[in-house]
From TrEMBL:
<keyword id="KW-0963">Cytoplasm</keyword>
<dbReference type="InterPro" id="IPR002500">
    <property type="entry name" value="PAPS_reduct_dom"/>
</dbReference>
<feature type="binding site">
    <location>
        <position position="215"/>
    </location>
    <ligand>
        <name>[4Fe-4S] cluster</name>
    </ligand>
</feature>
<feature type="binding site">
    <location>
        <position position="130"/>
    </location>
    <ligand>
        <name>[4Fe-4S] cluster</name>
    </ligand>
</feature>
<comment type="pathway">
    <text>Sulfur metabolism; hydrogen sulfide biosynthesis; sulfite from sulfate.</text>
</comment>
<dbReference type="InterPro" id="IPR008318">
    <property type="entry name" value="UCP030820"/>
</dbReference>
<dbReference type="InterPro" id="IPR004511">
    <property type="entry name" value="PAPS/APS_Rdtase"/>
</dbReference>
<dbReference type="GO" id="GO:0004604">
    <property type="term" value="F:phosphoadenylyl-sulfate reductase (thioredoxin) activity"/>
</dbReference>
<comment type="function">
    <text>Catalyzes the formation of sulfite from adenosine 5'-phosphosulfate (APS) using thioredoxin as an electron donor.</text>
</comment>
<dbReference type="Pfam" id="PF06073">
    <property type="entry name" value="DUF934"/>
</dbReference>
<keyword id="KW-0479">Metal-binding</keyword>
<keyword id="KW-0411">Iron-sulfur</keyword>
<feature type="binding site">
    <location>
        <position position="131"/>
    </location>
    <ligand>
        <name>[4Fe-4S] cluster</name>
    </ligand>
</feature>
<dbReference type="Pfam" id="PF01507">
    <property type="entry name" value="PAPS_reduct"/>
</dbReference>
<keyword id="KW-0408">Iron</keyword>
<feature type="active site" description="Nucleophile; cysteine thiosulfonate intermediate">
    <location>
        <position position="238"/>
    </location>
</feature>
<protein>
    <recommendedName>
        <fullName>Adenosine 5'-phosphosulfate reductase</fullName>
        <ecNumber>1.8.4.10</ecNumber>
    </recommendedName>
</protein>
Length: 424
């Protein structure tokens, strides 16, 4: 896989500083898509640019332009595992027809899918998390290798894209190139016909914007081309795109977007907040309050979906001792820094109930508490406090070497003689 060419990327960034992103956008006619692409590949980021393609309804147009300018340009396709069979066949058709020689499929992390979407139906209950696991997370380490990347976005597709420029300078000093920004649906069709490009097999069936099969439907005549994406949901983008004004998606890094710290990083969290009145048989990827679980125990035990348990100060984890293994995650609340009852709950889970799943601390989680939390068994943290987030990322947590109250059977409290300690 191509590695980032740091010298051209730095030179390009310096050039953009001098010209300004607005000046760069002013260099090209609105419809000069090939000129935009050629300049981006040869002058702005030579050897440090890639394209991300959905191989959807409009993809043949941009990929045809890529083949004209540089057929060896790296092309990445997000193989989410949820595509229409027709889309997968279309990938092979375009590779062969256009002579693209550097196409790569990006797959989601299998462990993430197993953990967050074991039944493959996360798209139904939480499409944002599904997109994040299957698209945003797999793509991020790829795009980080390049100084910029090319997209097929167009202004006409949604109101949010109505201000889309040819070039965007992102908050992490990379460049997004949108050669087709000013193309209309009619322009795309005309170009495709003029060059006899193969049409996506589903286009003639009313699929004008094509993503993953579960979240894509056909659109009616005159309807917004992307109306068939996540139809009926308050969702318009998968999260891999963001523009200069942040209207499409937040231009933050993965660490800034997430609040769940686990295994040494801020990661996507498939669990959402508990909603009062949720049907016990329909609940999924949420932490059920302990009293609610007890009140409807049989229904929750019969529920086949992944569930978590929420334990508040005063709740007795012993009351659900025989059921703790039912939960993929147990969230222990710390409503205030001074309330330490959550530490005891974690120790009970680990030392007496032998719970081996995720134990997460939620609420008032501050950096001074984290060493204590880890000692007691917490292996995940929901952190919103900015200084604590920075301390975790920079590995600047306070160290703890002396203990007055030992945890487990290995720690020795300060001021005692280890050889006189009694091991139970």
């Amino acid at each position: 896989m191509a590695q980032s060419n740091l010298a051209p990327a730095q030179a390009a960034h310096d050039k953009l500083k001098a010209l300004g992103i607005l000046a760069l956008n002013g260099m090209f006619d609105e419809m000069d898509a090939v000129g935009v692409l050629r300049y981006a590949i040869n002058e702005v980021l030579p050897g440090d640019l890639a394209i991300v393609s959905s191989f959807g309804a409009d993809s043949a147009v941009l990929l045809h332009m890529v083949a004209q300018v540089d057929p060896s340009l790296p092309v990445y396709f997000l193989e989410t595992g949820k595509h229409f069979p027709e889309t997968l066949a279309y990938v092979e058709t375009l590779k062969k027809t256009l002579g693209l020689i550097n196409v790569h499929a990006i797959h989601p992390n299998s462990e993430d899918v197993k953990r967050f979407d074991p039944n493959g139906d996360l798209w139904e209950s939480d499409p944002d998390s599904c997109c994040h696991i299957r698209k945003t997370e797999p793509l991020e380490p790829i795009t980080e290798q390049y100084g910029g990347w090319v997209t097929g976005r167009k202004r006409y597709q949604t109101a949010e894209r109505g201000v889309l420029p040819h070039f965007e300078l992102t908050s992490d000093d990379r460049i997004k190139v949108n050669p087709l920004a000013h193309f209309t649906d009619a322009d795309v069709i005309e170009y495709r016909q003029a060059h006899s490009l193969p049409e996506h097999p589903l286009y003639a069936k009313g699929f004008k914007s094509i993503g993953c099969a579960p979240c894509t439907s056909a659109v009616a005549e005159g309807e917004d081309p992307r109306a068939g994406r996540w139809r009926g949901l308050n969702k318009k983008e998968c999260g891999i795109h963001y523009d200069f004004n942040g209207a499409i998606a937040s231009p933050m890094s993965a660490a800034a977007r997430h609040t769940l710290w686990k295994d040494g990083a801020f990661i996507a969290d498939p669990f959402k907040s508990w909603t009062e009145g949720t049907d016990p048989s329909e609940a999924r990827y949420t932490h059920v309050p302990l009293p609610e679980f007890i009140a409807h125990r049989e229904a929750y035990l019969a529920n086949p979906h992944p569930l978590g348990l929420l334990v508040l100060p005063g709740d007795r984890i012993e009351d659900v001792a025989e059921d703790v293994s039912r939960f993929a995650s147990i969230a222990v609340a710390f409503p205030a820094f001074s309330d330490g009852r959550g530490y005891s709950t974690a120790r009970l889970l680990v030392e007496r109930l032998n719970y081996a799943g995720e134990i997460r601390a939620v609420g008032d989680v501050l950096q001074d508490q984290i060493p204590h939390m880890r000692r007691c068994g917490f292996n995940a943290l929901v952190v919103t406090h900015a200084p604590t987030r920075e301390a975790l990322i920079d590995n600047r947590l306070p160290e703890m070497a002396l203990f007055y109250q030992p945890v487990g059977r290995t720690e020795v409290p300060l001021g005692t003689r280890p050889f006189l300690r009694r091991v139970s």
